[in-house]
Design a protein that fits this description.
about 120 residues; about 10% strand; mainly alpha; globular; two-stranded parallel ribbon
């Protein structure tokens, strides 16, 4: 596993199934939601916590490497058209790629979503 930026960098993740279900709920919401950003989340988790969850759920240790923002920017300089290099550098910045789950549409409406541990357990079980 590679941490991006720092082990404290957070990321918000949501399963495709939850995105579809929540999109339907948002489209059918009353009062109608229009012309605004609507945040949803299955989980908001740091790369450090993600590593812990993966090891706990899988029952297996694995190699963890931290990729600093400087390293990722250098990678991007070497391959400016590499989409994954762009992705990694953007996520390593630590801003704009996560939000508090408690402030999301699903949390405000009491809609349960799949967190990282549940997702992994279902895939590894």
């Amino acid at each position: 596993m590679h941490g991006l930026g720092s082990w404290d960098t957070q990321v918000t993740v949501t399963t495709p199934e939850d995105v579809g279900r929540l999109t339907t709920e948002i489209l059918l919401a009353e009062p109608r939601i229009a012309n605004e950003v609507v945040y949803v989340a299955g989980d908001t988790i740091s790369y450090g916590r993600l590593a812990e969850v993966v090891e706990r759920v899988s029952g297996q240790p694995f190699e963890k490497t931290l990729w600093s923002l400087d390293k990722l920017r250098a990678d991007l300089d070497q391959a400016p058209d590499d989409v994954m290099a762009r992705y990694r550098a953007a996520f390593a910045r630590g801003d704009g790629m996560w939000w508090e789950k408690s402030s999301t549409f699903n949390a405000r409406h009491g809609i349960e979503t799949t967190d990282v541990a549940q997702y992994l357990a279902a895939r590894l079980g």
